[in-house]
Structures are given as structure tokens and as C-alpha cells.
Specification:
Blueprint (H helix, E strand, L loop, with lengths): L2 E4 L2 E4 L19 E8 L2 E8 L6 H20 L13 H10 L13 H11 L4 E5 L2 E4 H17 L7 E4 L5 H13 L2 E4 L6 H10 L2 E6 L13 E4 L4 H5 L15 E7 L7 E6 H15 L6 E4 L9 H10 L2 E4 L2 H4 L2 H11 L3 E4 L1 H7 L13 E5 L5 H10 L4 E6 L9 E5 L16 E2 L3 E6 L12 E7 L5 E2 L3 H7 E3 L9 E11 L5 E6 L3 E4 L2 E4 H9 L4 E9 L7 E8 L7 H9 L10 E4 L20
Parallel strand pairs: 5-14, 7-8, 7-9, 9-10, 13-14, 13-15, 15-16, 16-17, 29-30
Antiparallel strand pairs: 1-2, 3-4, 5-6, 11-12, 12-22, 17-18, 18-19, 20-21, 21-24, 23-24, 24-25, 26-27, 28-29
Helix pairs in contact: 3-9, 4-5, 8-9
Length: 612
């Protein structure tokens, strides 16, 4: 066997005579140049690469894959090129194993409120919740949830019943969701600020039979033909119920909640998540956090986005304190800094773009937690991490990744000194899988890809949700059979995210394979906005993209081809969209075009759309 040396790495080429050839040029003219030449003694291989873009290990992997490809061509001359392997069977199995998080025991027969009840028994007087000037101990929270649960049971709530929660962030929100659990039901978060039509469609798809709300939101719910219980008006009747927990038939595989995400067909889709999936996530996350006893958590996200569940459920199941921050405070750096100076939360999870905006305030260090900062919901930039490190060098920073369909999160990356490499990816890596989670990066044929090669990210393990409420076809499309598992019925979730493994097993996020985007932590299918646009009789065609100017937040831009003249005004278009979409899905800019640019496949060429 002859050896070819790449930097400090040696690569074997079985059966080939190869000699290292020094380059005539000291620098690479192109990013990557691969020469295959016939010499007097056999095949000569020469690779020249830009060291500012590629590490030595990546080039070595490239050469190994090329060798395997050559061997495959010889052994399978009649096979399609796209089906030829890039890895030997043993290495293929190593890649599969690389994406599997450690196995951990996780009781599948427990419910969230059972774990919460153990914390009540252990420390009844400990502080459970704080919101502005209002606080609740574990015993107070348990008692109020028990009373509400009994009241809900009198109104027909039992096993598997779906109860809408149309409430603002507050202590009452947590009382409500625990009350639903204890009554035997599952909650469906409904944002009071959503348009009536959207709330009605979500309630219908999730089969909501009853809504917990307050009198001030009654007008928002006028399109829903379901019974409503008002936690303010009905409070005297609820408080007359017994303090003890009612009997309910809830197990680990019982439904915990249905949470909606944007849908490409123009209709949001509800993800069904069970109690055991939430508890499995919490156990894996706490193993990573390694927080002190009775930690405190700050929740700055709405219940309609599971980003905040990273704070909510670890607090309730560990005896910790959950500091609930109102939406107004969470957007104001001065107010949030004052809040955190008072409560000193140990742990905070926040969207990177929201954190970046807050750090531009007068006292940026005040809005950082005491022990651990978790960023998630969208790609995180290195500039943001560097700024956080400069403000609080000892703060642990974690990048968290996971779609709603896999229960909040499945991978975590601890950002530390090992990330100070000469070649940084465009965003912070998303790390390694949590316990009982599996992450695979596959090609279009479902084959595992070697380190350094980009493919679509698939997720398996105990965190996978049931599927989509009332949408079996969509569930079957996104939750596919698990090709690497021996367990009957095992599934993988197709994320639509592009990613790749590094040589050390850490995963780098590279973007999307479709037109889904993330904006301030919310997942948005651009097709849903486009469908809403063309519902207007004055719009013949429309396209929506996400755009970012240097130094500013990302914003949505809508391109409209009018069907009439004069064209619909921006005010009119915004009003039409506001009837069916939440505020965060309303484009900031509208551009009128005579036609939309098309590519060779007769689809909208989004890259050719003009700057707004």
C-alpha cells in the first residue's frame, strides 16, 4: 500500500500506485481542484485546496470517499452512479452509531403532573411561580390546579379531551395547564392575539370541546362554537371545589398537548405530544444543564411556541422556580434587566435574534442568567456568542436544536474554547443528540452520509410526537419508517433541514431544503403566507421571502403580481392577511411586480426577486 499525505493526515489508496506531487503554485487558485492524471507508473492524484475554507480532516475524508467510489465502480460497473456507496459497510455503521444519543432509562408510565406532585410533597412551601408581583408556592399551585381539575371534570373533561388555553403568560396559565392534566385532558394553546379565523381552524383541527380563557378575550373567541370557562368570572365557583387531586386516567402515553405550527398548504398543523415524550426530553436536558439544586428558570416565550417549554417543565418537575416574564417586559431591555436583577434566574432560553436586540440596551449584562444561557429557535451567529462571552465570561452557553415534532429539542452544543478553530461554520453548530434521541444525515436515497457531506436531517428516538392532529396523510409523509431500527413501528421524522457531521460527531446546521424559515423563534411556512395573499381577488400571484439587511433583524418581504389596476394598496393587503395570519407572519415590505421571475422548471426564482 502506498500513502498520500495531506497535511499531517495520511490516506491509503488500496490497489493504486500514487505519489505525492508538490504544487507548482504556493496557493490554491480555486477553492478546490482535484486532478486525476495518467502517469507512467499508474494513476496520479493531485488535490489543491483553499486552507481558509477546508480543514485537513475534511480533505482526507474527501480522498477516502473518492477511493471507496473508485472501488465501488470496479465492483459494480452496471450500477447507477448515484447508488454507489461513499463508505465501506463498517464505516457506514459507525456513522449510524455516531448519530445515536446514549440510552437512558425513562419511565414510560408516568405523567407530568405525577412528577410535579412528588415535588409538592417534597417541598410544599418552596416558590413555584412568580409573575410580576404575584407568587405561588408548590402547595398553592397544586391546590388551585386540583380545584380547577375538579371543575373541569364537572364540565365533561376526561381522558383525551382537548381543552383550549386562550390566556396570556401568567401564573394563571400554569394553573390552567396543570388543571387540564389533572382532569385527564390535553391542552391546546390558543394565542389571544391570533385572528379569529385562525383560532377557529386550530380549535376545529384539534377537536377542542372547551376553552379556558378570561372575559377580556371573549371577543377574540366569538368564531368558536365551544363552551368557555372564564378563570376570572368563574373563579368563585372554581374555588368552592375540593383541594385534593381528582381521580383521572392519565398515563405516559396519554396526550399532553397539541401545539400548532405554520403549514405550507395554507392551514396550520397541530403536533400531538404525549406525557412520556415531554418527560424524556426534560430528563435528557437536565443531564446537560447540570444545575444546582432547586434552580430558577426564566420563561420569556409564549405557550404557543414550545421554545418556552425548556424552562416550564424542568422547573415544575425539579422543585425549581419558574419566573414568568410578560411579553412587554421580554421585549424591553431596561424592563427585562430590572426583572433579572431582582430574581437572578439561573437559566434562560431565548431566540438568538431577540437576545441580540436586547443586548443593544444600556446594561446588556443584566439580561443574562446566572449559570446557563440556552439559545434556540433559529440559527445562532458567532458574533452573538462572542458578545455574550465578553459580557459574562463564566456563563455557560448552549445552542439547542429540535423541531416541535420531536418534542422541543433533540441536540445540544456546549459552546466552549474548542470552538475557537481557524475555520468556523457560518453559524454555531447544533451539537450532539440528547439521550434516547437519534439523528441521521441521509442522502436522497436514504443512505447515511459521511462526515463533511451535507444531507437532510432525520430524527428518531423516544421524543417523536404522535403526528399531526386530524392529518394522517401528512403524518405518514413526514414520519417515515425507521430503516436502521429493529423495533416494530419505529419511525423517523423528516425535518427538511440540511446538515452535516463533523469528524468529531458534532452536527452543523446548513439551512433548509424547502421554503420554511424561522423568524424570532417562530417557524413559518412561506407557502402559508403566499396562499393567504392570492385569496385576495386583486392578486394574481405572490411570493414571500425572508430578507435581512446588514445590522438589522430578518424581515418578511411579499412580492405581488396584481390582477387588477389599480393594484391593491399595502394597507389593504395587510388587512387581508391580518384576518387569517398572526402578526409575526405579516410581511414588513410589499413589492409590486408585473410578473414573478421563473427558473427553467417554471417555478418562482426567489434569488432573482429584486431587493425591497
Amino acid at each position: 500500500f502506498n500513502m498520500v499525505k495531506v497535511g499531517d493526515l495520511a490516506v491509503e489508496f488500496h490497489g493504486l500506485s500514487a505519489e505525492p506531487v508538490s504544487s507548482v503554485e504556493p496557493d490554491s487558485k480555486f477553492d478546490l481542484t482535484f486532478h486525476v492524471l495518467e502517469g507512467t507508473s499508474g494513476i496520479e492524484l493531485r488535490l489543491v485546496y483553499n486552507t481558509d475554507l477546508f480543514d485537513g480532516w475534511r480533505i482526507a475524508e474527501f480522498l477516502k470517499q473518492y477511493q471507496t467510489l473508485l472501488e465501488s465502480v470496479v465492483a459494480n460497473a452496471d450500477q447507477c452512479v448515484g447508488e454507489l456507496p461513499l463508505m465501506p459497510a463498517e464505516e457506514r455503521q459507525n456513522i449510524i452509531d455516531m448519530g445515536c444519543g446514549p440510552d437512558r432509562p425513562c419511565p414510560d408510565d408516568q405523567s407530568i403532573h405525577e412528577v410535579f406532585a412528588r415535588q409538592v410533597a417534597a417541598s410544599p412551601d418552596a416558590l413555584a411561580l412568580s409573575f410580576e408581583e404575584q407568587t405561588l408556592t408548590y402547595q398553592d399551585l397544586d391546590t388551585r390546579a386540583n380545584r380547577l381539575a375538579r371543575y373541569l371534570q364537572r364540565h365533561g373533561v376526561g381522558p383525551a379531551a382537548r381543552v383550549g388555553l386562550c390566556l396570556e403568560r401568567s401564573n394563571e396559565m400554569v394553573v390552567a395547564l396543570l388543571g387540564v392534566f389533572k382532569a385527564g385532558g390535553a391542552y391546546v394553546p390558543l394565542d389571544p392575539d391570533f385572528p379569529q379565523e385562525r383560532l377557529a381552524s386550530m380549535a376545529a383541527d384539534a377537536d377542542v370541546r372547551l376553552v379556558l380563557t378570561e372575559e377580556k378575550f371573549e371577543e377574540n373567541l366569538s368564531a368558536l362554537d365551544v363552551e368557555r370557562i372564564h378563570l376570572d368570572i368563574d373563579r368563585p365557583a372554581i374555588d368552592r371545589e375540593q383541594d385534593s387531586a381528582p381521580v383521572c386516567q392519565v398515563h405516559g402515553d396519554s396526550l399532553a398537548y397539541v401545539i400548532f405550527t405554520s403549514g405550507s398548504t395554507g392551514r396550520p398543523k397541530g403536533v400531538e405530544v404525549e406525557h412520556r415524550q415531554v418527560l424524556n426530553y426534560v430528563a435528557g436536558l437536565l443531564e446537560q444543564l447540570q444545575l444546582a439544586e432547586s434552580p430558577s428558570f426564566a420563561m420569556v416565550s409564549p405557550l404557543t411556541a414550545d421554545l418556552g417549554y425548556t424552562m416550564l417543565y424542568p422547573a415544575l418537575t425539579t422543585g425549581g422556580t419558574l419566573h414568568i416574564v410578560s411579553d412587554d417586559t421580554a421585549r424591553d431591555s431596561v424592563a427585562l434587566g430590572a426583572c433579572f436583577r431582582r430574581y437572578r434566574p439561573d437559566c434562560l432560553k431565548i431566540v438568538p435574534s431577540q437576545l441580540a436586540s436586547l443586548l443593544m440596551g444600556r446594561a446588556p449584562a443584566d439580561i443574562l442568567p446566572e449559570q446557563c444561557l440556552i439559545v434556540g429557535g433559529e440559527a445562532c451567529s458567532w458574533d452573538l456568542v462572542d458578545k455574550v462571552r465578553a459580557l459574562k465570561p463564566d456563563l455557560r452557553v448552549m445552542n439547542h436544536y429540535g423541531p416541535t415534532e420531536t418534542t422541543v429539542g433533540v441536540t445540544t452544543h456546549h459552546v466552549d474554547a474548542t470552538d475557537q478553530t481557524s475555520i468556523r461554520p457560518s453559524s454555531v453548530p447544533i451539537g450532539r443528540p440528547l439521550p434516547n434521541s437519534q439523528v441521521f444525515i441521509l442522502d436522497s436515497l436514504g443512505n447515511p452520509l459521511p462526515p463533511g457531506v451535507a444531507g437532510e436531517l432525520y430524527i428518531g428516538g423516544r421524543g417523536l410526537a404522535r403526528g399531526y392532529a386530524g392529518a394522517p396523510e401528512l403524518t405518514a409523509e413526514r414520519f417515515v419508517p425507521h430503516p436502521f431500527s429493529k423495533d416494530a413501528g419505529a419511525r423517523l421524522y423528516r425535518t427538511g433541514d440540511r446538515a452535516r457531521f463533523r469528524a468529531d460527531g458534532i452536527i452543523e446546521f446548513l439551512g433548509r431544503v424547502d421554503h420554511q424559515v424561522k423568524l424570532r423563534g417562530f417557524r413559518i411556512e412561506l407557502g402559508e403566507i403566499e396562499n393567504a395573499l392570492v385569496r385576495h381577488e386583486g392578486v394574481r400571484a405572490g411570493a414571500v421571502v425572508i430578507h435581512q439587511q446588514e445590522g438589522r433583524e430578518k424581515q418578511l418581504v411579499a412580492y405581488v403580481v396584481p390582477a387588477v389596476r389599480p393594484a391593491p394598496t399595502v394597507t389593504e393587503l395587510r388587512r387581508v392577511l391580518a384576518d387569517v395570519l398572526p402578526d409575526y407572519m405579516i410581511p414588513a415590505f410589499f413589492v409590486t411586480l408585473d410578473t414573478l421571475p421563473l427558473n427553467v422548471n417554471n417555478k418562482v426564482d426567489r434569488r432573482a426577486l429584486p431587493e425591497p
